[in-house]
Amino acid sequence: MSMVLLSSGFSASASTSTNAATATVESMNVSADWLNLAVKDTWMWAWPMINIYQRRLAFSHLPEAGLLGGTIPVGPPNALSMLDDYIKPDERQVACPNQDVVYGFAALALDKSPMVVQVPDFGSRFWVFQAVDLRTDSFASLGRQYGTSPGFYLLVGPDWKGTVPPGIKQVFRSTSNTSVLIPRIFQADTPEDKKAVKSLISGINLYPLANYTGKPQPRDWGALRQYPAEHKTEGETRWVTPENFWKLLPSVLNDARPLAGEEAQYAKAKQLLELYQSPRYRQLMDEATQTAERELTQPLLAFHLAGRPAGNYWTANINGAQFGFDFFTRTASARAFIFVNKPEETQYFVQDFDKNGTLLNGKSRYTLTFPAGQTPPVAGFWSLTVYNPQHFFVENRINRYALGTRNKDLHYNDDGSLTLYLQSDSPGKDRETNWLPTPQEGAFSLMIRAYGPEQDILQHRWQPPAVEPKP
């Protein structure tokens, strides 16, 4: 069968095409093979954007920012919610959390208002406020590594043309109206530092430009509204489904403008949306979408598919939050560990295998030894985290989910090297400070985070050591 491309325009009302337009589509002679490939390609390309847009919609009914089940910050668009301690191990809203930082989260609707970000004085503490657009690409540089000074910063949408009031230090423009802001503030695992962080974060705030006064507006993040916990799922909340994909795609296309050179991808997506109005093609497209989820994105919940080889079977995610036209890595990252920072903010090394290329399994015991002076070279901090197959914490009796800079009692070997013990049972009382529990059986994965990476990491001169299976 020949392929016919549609040339009609697109608007947000495409889902309510007139009978005449539907009849025109019905008369088209579109190859089923082309349709199948075009649907799968569009699914892979738009998956991260649908993911972000659905997060904006998911909690739009909430009256104010709060904590869902006491574990995860949520709120309506343009409302920041902050934790005041490490994230809890049972959260399921965002895969691959870490217990090195105190998190905040806000889904931004910059078409409603520009948003003022209020930054307190963090002193020498490592911090970064991540702001990403619908593509999960960063559009702001806010953090210690940028020398960001305390004060007020403005986040605006692609079409904003207002006046910047006095006192705003810098304006960051997103490529889409729907965006996300995620503050991360390092916290050492000591009572003293937890108390210090609670005081510091009271200076963090986010509010519409109309509420800006030029003076700090403190917040008591320990007094957030508590929302009932949702049913706990095994894996991450399914933000993208075959059922919501074609419903949300028109809004996504209108929200995120094409990058230069991306026009053909948009044109194809718009053609598919018109075809979807036809019962003749809708069934084929629904089947192709179900197949795309099953065969393309579900298997991407694997760390080693989201980056480049970094030695010893580790994989490095080297273009996080600046994916551009690297659609595959963008979607693989969004599936495996969404909301990665820019490379100069954080480098991620992920691992599914031991030194022999065998998948890690809780039935075995492993060690990870950094030679003397060769822990991750960072200006901020580093950590190692264990994740289950769904990329969430492995719950354990000592409630430990990461080891690294935050741990002040790590024991170094006599030669200055550092050995971490990865196993389900205790390695012995004298080694428990260096023990990171793994599941009792089944697959698990590892992630090294290097916040504020130094040049040896940025220039790929440093690599993580091999994961050694114990006899």
Automatic annotation (TrEMBL):
Pfam families documented for this protein: DUF1214, DUF1254
Signal peptide: 1-20
Superkingdom in the source lineage: Bacteria
Lineage: Bacteria, Pseudomonadati, Pseudomonadota, Gammaproteobacteria, Enterobacterales
Start and end residues of each DUF1254 domain: 78-208
Keyword flag tRNA processing: no
PANTHER family xrefs: BLL3101 PROTEIN
Keywords tagged on the record: Signal
Family annotation (InterPro entries): DUF1214, DUF1214_C_sf, DUF1254, DUF1254_sf
Protein name: Putative exported protein
Statement: the UniProt record of this protein carries the keyword Protease: no
Domain DUF1214: 345-455
